[in-house]
Amino acid sequence: MPGLLDNLVETLTDASLDFEVIVVDDGSTDGTPEILAAYRDRMPLHTYRHERNEGLGATIRDGLFHASRCARPKDIIVTMDADETHAPGLILRMVRMVKEGHDVVIASRYQRGARVVGLSLHRRAISSAASLLLRILFPMPGVRDYTCGYRAYRAETLLKAIDMYGDRFVDQEGFQCMVDILLKLRRMPLVVAGEVPLILRYDLKKGASKMRIFETSWRTLKLLVARKFGRV
């Protein structure tokens, strides 16, 4: 976390971008509140804490809803992991693409120039298979990576989505929430999506992954069936 916050401040300050940082602390027990408190004088930092671990879905939901409430329509909202696997420098390219006309920009593992460091072949194979399945069932021009959480959203687009779906916009509990957000944006008119190549530094990840592969895969398949044959 300290390394990520330092890199965020340096990257965004050097680029002369106005920014605010929102951190959703999902019931951490590793001293995260104390670390965040030490950074409040160094950056515009807002923190929200879950008293117990509620999972990625609740974390993304609260982060997006908090950001949307204080954002102006022309602002850009970026979501990223706080485990130092996502390099803040990529934000500059994502912001530029939003300013060029995209409504959502995804840091993708499947674009030319992308690299994945430190992730097992087994996990990479599962991710590639999921990407192929999603592109077949739910084609979205400009998108190959439906699951990565490192994204930039035009605030105006998120505000419209929240107005359209209400509390249902982020209603999945686990990692499949990232897929569901895109499927819901896909149903909205004139949402333009794009991708930038991601260098995923899984070797820098702090602690073990919280993703349960079988459980996540099963929940995602159930979600795809529901969205394909039901209503979003």
The third-level CATH topology is: Spore Coat Polysaccharide Biosynthesis Protein SpsA, Chain A
The level of helicity is 40-55%
Distance between the termini: 35 Å
Q: Overall mean pLDDT score?
A: 89
Q: What are the secondary-structure elements, in order, as H or E?
A: HEHEHEHEEHEHHEEH
Give the number of domains.
1
Radius of gyration, rounded?
17 Å
Name the quaternary structure.
single chain
CATH superfamily: Spore Coat Polysaccharide Biosynthesis Protein SpsA, Chain A
Q: Report the portion of residues in β strands.
A: 15-25%
Which CATH first-tier class would you pick? Answer: Alpha Beta
Strand order of the largest sheet: 3-6-4-7
> What does the main sheet amount to?
4 strands, mixed
- By secondary-structure content and strand pairing, the structural class works out as alpha/beta
- Total helices: the number is 8
Shape call: globular
CATH architecture: Alpha-Beta Complex
